[in-house]
Write a structure and sequence with these properties.
alpha/beta, five-stranded mixed sheet, 15 helices, about 25% strand, globular
Length: about 500
């Protein structure tokens, strides 16, 4: 059987060629336009001598060039390697070398040009001015001058479509190989389960180079013929303006985005078009969820997934059937288990916390050029997520924390998320992250790093005393650090690695 993921764009373009696929502050692109332009990119890449299976790195912010590059790469049977535009030269060079990339399509030359100088045999395509790029670089506009190619490479359904690098929080980033079929099934089933409607307009402020933005937003919209309202960078006022301008119906974001919008002044904007929200990437604190839902009058459904699961593994089945703070149930065709340290299945119940393991059509083929790490992740035939959780009697899944984030204090397990949930209820705290720090007597001590709301004041000792009154003695943070802002990753998700430094 042959299959190409770019079929999701082609079929929507055939069904509704004039419908807006992408909307930007300065204009829009129809399905037919994106299909035609990505066909030109595919033809140009083939003319450059790239053969099916070759890797093409794309280091661009959300924009038409990213989308046309992505679908052009797929159409040509090549493999897309999305890269964060904020990566430094050494990081870019690592990704180019590790992925065996033959071409880089980028937007800014500085760090990328330095990386290209270190890695032999990688060509460059520049979006924008050629100044600062290697002499052999060509402008992106040149790709669009090629005659459009309507042919979709008839590869195998299990061919790798995207080589998506993990965040590398536990070591150097690894490339998860996502197939055409796994990405197709995820966006098809995920969109149906979430409740996609033909006239939906979905907000795209999450970066397309991240699995959430790529699979759950870009792919899902293309598959179901929806319109995307693209916001290149998250800023509350820009998001609110896009919601009003494009009549956005679906808000998709990570918890920090919902928090920022919950406290933002939205009085000057019409957000009445919103009908539902989607949250992923990290657990959303209950206080943030309640505040946002009350302010905007829409339900926010949590889901769960990883780079290795092509974004979506579980979804809450609609507003009427959700369980607040649950990540929902596995999507069709995906199996989920909770296992103990010996990989034995655990029964339902919040007293039976274990590691979440998965298998199904959405799971990565493995880590590129890393057979030992692939074998370890897939021991027993299940993909081990590294996340801790439990399943209730109704089959709803609850994430407790990351396995690596678990704090063992004096022999007691402390789940940082539970402590963070408490801290978000403190009247002065805007954001909170709880970590473990080495302790000679107890092994680890519970430490909270928090930022304060504008105009609020609080002392570390006061926060410790407040928490002590509201949570078990072994759980409350003994030390509190107050910072101006918590570090965040490319999607706006709080990242704990710098806090442990």
């Amino acid at each position: 059987m042959s299959f190409n993921l770019a079929t999701i764009l082609r079929e929507s373009a055939l069904a509704q060629p004039e419908k807006d696929f992408l909307r930007f502050p300065g204009g829009s692109h129809s399905y037919a336009e994106v299909d035609e332009r990505s066909g030109r990119v595919a033809a140009a890449l083939r003319r450059r001598g790239l053969a099916p299976g070759d890797k093409v790195a794309v280091q661009l912010a959300n924009g038409p060039e990213f989308v046309c590059s992505y679908f052009g790469i797929l159409k040509a049977g090549l493999v897309m390697v999305p890269l964060n535009p904020l990566l430094k030269a050494a990081e870019i060079a690592y990704h180019l070398e590790d992925s065996d990339a033959r071409l880089l399509i980028g937007g800014a030359p500085g760090e990328a040009a330095e990386a290209l100088a270190e890695v032999a045999g990688v060509g460059a395509v520049a979006v924008g001015d050629l100044d600062g790029w290697p002499a052999a670089a060509v402008p992106f506009t040149e790709l669009l001058e090629a005659p459009a190619d309507d042919d979709l490479h008839p590869g195998a359904a299990d061919d790798t479509a995207v080589l998506l690098y993990t965040s590398g929080t536990t070591g150097r980033p690894k490339g998860a190989e996502l197939s055409h079929f796994s990405l197709y099934m995820t966006c098809t089933i995920g969109g149906q389960t979430f409740g996609a409607e033909p006239d939906d307009v979905v907000l795209a402020v999450l970066p397309f180079f991240h699995v959430y933005g790529l699979s759950s937003i870009l792919n899902s919209a293309a598959r179901h013929g929806r319109t995307i309202s693209v916001v290149p960078r998250f800023e509350p006022q820009a998001v609110l303006a896009a919601i009003e301008r494009d009549r956005v119906t679906i808000m998709a974001g990570v918890p920090t985005m919902y928090h920022a919008l919950a406290v933002a002044d939205s009085s000057a904007y019409d957000t009445s078009s919103l009908r539902i929200g989607s949250s992923g990437g990290a657990a959303i604190p209950e206080q943030v969820l309640r505040t946002f839902e009350e302010k905007y009058g829409i339900p926010v459904l949590e889901g769960y997934g990883l780079s290795e699961s092509a974004s979506t593994a579980t979804v809450n089945p609609g507003a009427a059937n959700r369980k607040v703070l649950s990540i929902g149930k596995p999507i069709w065709g995906v199996q989920l288990r909770i296992v103990d340290g010996a990989d034995r299945p655990l029964p339902p119940g919040r007293d039976h916390v274990g590691e979440i393991v998965l298998r199904g059509h959405n799971i990565t083929k493995g880590y590129y050029k890393r057979p030992a790490e692939t074998a370890e992740a897939f021991r027993g035939g299940w993909f081990h997520t590294g996340d801790l959780g439990y399943v209730d009697e109704d089959g709803f899944v609850f994430v407790v924390d990351r396995k690596k984030d678990l704090v063992i204090r004096g022999g007691y397990n402390v789940y940082p998320r539970e402590v963070e949930e408490l801290l978000y209820r403190h009247p002065a705290i805007a954001e909170a992250a709880v970590i473990g720090e080495p302790d000679d007597r107890l092994g680890e001590e519970v430490v909270a790093v928090v930022s304060l709301k504008p105009g609020a004041s609080a002392e570390p000792a006061e926060i410790v005393a407040w928490a002590k009154e509201r949570i078990a003695a072994y759980k409350y943070p003994r030390r509190v650090r107050i910072v101006a802002e918590l570090p965040k990753g490319p999607t706006g998700k709080i990242t704990k690695l710098p806090l442990r430094g």
